[in-house]
Amino acid sequence: MVLLVVLSFNRPGHPHYFTAKIERGAIRDVVEATGTISAVVTVQVGSQVSGTIAKLNADFNSLVHKGDLVAIIDPALFRGALLQATADLENAKANLVAAEANLEKARAGLVQTKADYERTVGLARSGIASPQQLDQAKANHDSASATVGAAAASVTQARAQESQKAAAVSVAQTNLNYTLIRSPIDGTVVARNVDVGQTVAASLQAPTIFTIAQDLTKMQVHAKTDESDVGSIQPGRPVAFKVDAFPKETFQGLVSQVRMNATVVQNVVTYDTIVDFDNRDRKLFPGMTAYATIPIATVENTLKIPNAALRYKPPLTVEEVRGLYRKYDIDAGPAQGAPQAAPMAQETTGGSRPSDGASHRPSRMEPLGATAVVWRVQSKGALEPVQVGLGITDHSFTELTAIVRGQLQEGDEIITGSVGGGTPSGPALPGGVRR
Asked: How far apart are CA 340 and CA 106, in angstroms?
């Protein structure tokens, strides 16, 4: 509750202060983020061949199993291509047989010419055959040998053509098989992008026909978290989130990872925090917007200070503020009200330490991480600065971990703003109007 304390109301020039009490309660430091619900595994089923959709065996929300036939592309052209490739293969096989027969014929001719040449050599030695007959026999032998080599090369070429035509048959058969589109996983069809009779073209990239989510009973939230928050988020932290479809329900999940792939939009850097959760009743659908709350630290039954009091600066000159700091033995190094490093602090009363997955906090007798100066009004209207140790914050209240300099306890009132006595100081009320 905020109280208005009016001091020296009849004397112009004195400020009117807004105050708030030091309360006891719980403070929960959380990270809030907005994300999108998606399935853990989502597969886009496309077509590797171009053609006209002849039949669709699945639709939106259809349950499919791995290997199920979900769509058929008109196979007429691909069957024709397969028949043509098969005929070419048979022709290549026939050419191979003919080439092998020619090789055998050439080898037989080589045997005949070799025998003739050897007989002519013997007759020439006896003086019966003339040198001309010997040269003719040698030329016939050499020609038959060359014919055998050419026939062997023709056989090799025919075999290569047969292999080429066999590969063409395999490609045509594969393209024909691709006209039958089957589900690669067990899941639910969440999107259908084509209709019967529509032509799909796979010349540049495979067109998407279906989008299948593998298991909608286990899903994820891809939450966009600011770069200033990712250092506090660790895997295993519990997460609570809501969706617009069920505004009165809160769903629970766990952080599985913070992905290092940054997204930059207008110089704002965010990272995807992945939250796993069970969706056994299938109430949540892919694509829903989730509003996630990730608890970072929690303290119960502790003293807490309104953040407005930490931001308050009194309408005093710098010399007056430094004089009050010296009077109450407060370090005047940092700017008034700004958090600063703290010395050993005295223990405050009550309050439990962080729980519910909170990160480690310093004990009350350890050096605190930061301090600030808050202001209170004494009975005679004088201002008194009090240096306090700060803990976690929920952006409305901050944990009071210790009283470094001065006196402060539960129920005491501290200044959150002022009007009069110079320029109004402190936070404005809603609508930009100061009381």
From this structure: 103
- Read off the tokens for 174: 């594969």
> What are the pLDDT digits (tens) for 70-95?
999 999 999 999 999 999 999 999 99
CA pair distance 10, 14, nearest whole angstrom: 9
Rounded Cα distance, 364 and 353, in Å: 9
Report how far apart, in Å, the C-alpha atoms of 141 and of each of 109, 151, 220 are. 9, 15, 83
According to DSSP, the residues that pair with 52 across neighbouring strands are 199
Q: Are 147 and 7 in the same domain?
A: no
Strands of the sheet with 199-200, listed across from one edge: 180-182, 69-73, 51-56, 199-200
Each residue's pLDDT tens digit, 146-176: 999 999 999 999 999 999 999 999 999 999 9
Contacts of 309 (CB under 8 A, 6+ apart): 20, 374, 375, 414, 415, 416
CA dist., res. 162 & res. 419, Å (int) = 98
- If we measure between CA atoms, which residue out of 222, 363, 355 comes closest to residue 286? 222
The CA distance from 154 to 95, in Å, is 9
pTM for the complete prediction?
A: 0.67
Which structural domain, as residue segments, surrounds residue 428? 2-27+299-432
Give per-residue pLDDT as tens, 25-67.
999 989 999 999 999 999 999 999 999 999 999 999 999 999 9
Residues 352, 393 within the same domain: yes
Q: Does residue 417 sit in helix, strand or coil?
A: strand
- The pLDDT value given to residue 432: 33
User: In 315-434, which residue ranges form alpha helices assigned H by DSSP?
Assistant: 318-327
One domain, residues 258 and 139:
no
Q: What DSSP string describes 23-90?
A: EEEEEEEEEEEEEEEEESSEEEEE-SS-EEEEEE---TT-EE-TT-EEEEE--HHHHHHHHHHHHHHH
Q: What's the pLDDT score for residue 123? A: 86
Identify the domain boundary among 256, 274, 298. 298
- Residues 263, 303, single domain; the answer is no
Q: Are residues 155 and 208 in the same domain?
A: no
Phi, psi of 353 (to 5 degrees): -80, 170
Question: For residues 306 and 416, is the Cβ–Cβ distance under 8 A?
Answer: yes
- One DSSP character per residue, 178-219 reads TTEEE-SSSEEEEEE---TT-EE--SSSPPEEEEEES-TTEE
d(CA 174, CA 244): 47
Q: Among 14, 24, 21, which Cα is nearest to 414's?
A: 21
| Closest C-alpha to 314, from 15, 52, 48, 103 | 15
